[in-house]
Sequence to fold (205 residues):
Amino acid sequence: MARLPRDSHETDSTKGKAMGRNGFLRSRPVARTVTALALLAILAAPAAAAPKSIWDGKWFTSEGNGSTVELPAFLQDGPIHGLIGDDNDYGDSYDGVEGSSLWAQHYWANSTGRPYVFLTTQFIGSGAHAVTYSVDKDDLGVLSGYEDADSTKVFYAFCRKADAHLQCVELHWDKSENATIAPLMDHILSSLKLTVWKPMKYSDE
Fold:
């Protein structure tokens, strides 16, 4: 299974923080078993000529530092890389496979604020063009919409509050796959479970 870094960059405002949309500093090999509250409002928009889906109804559990979440099993077949910043191991990025535009990130974030505020900083603050759905609760934040001005790139992100940090998941896909991918979000959101978290440096692995 190939494990390659996604293009990433760091700014003063993102240094040392989990930046699912903009990436992290560098990759590390993943050497462990890698295992959403309402339908997106964008489902109401018809998708033109959706390609044949590779979704087969199977899930796997992504095991992160402090949480687990169920993701479509086919993501295991593509490149996976670690999300590293300031030598902190934040989680994993599943970069997708041929036949689907879906890719996902599962990570913890160094924030003690409201999850929704964190998400708006990550997405609205860094260029998302439209928000179509959101949830703002003390312990849960959800944000979904389009990443581009043409409304062809969809994102769905959520974070749950844990002790002194957040546990987050992001999913990104092309609008052409809405009919297949968007209905999976409720299951993915509800599957996020908090587990034991401990500070972990990349150099400790």
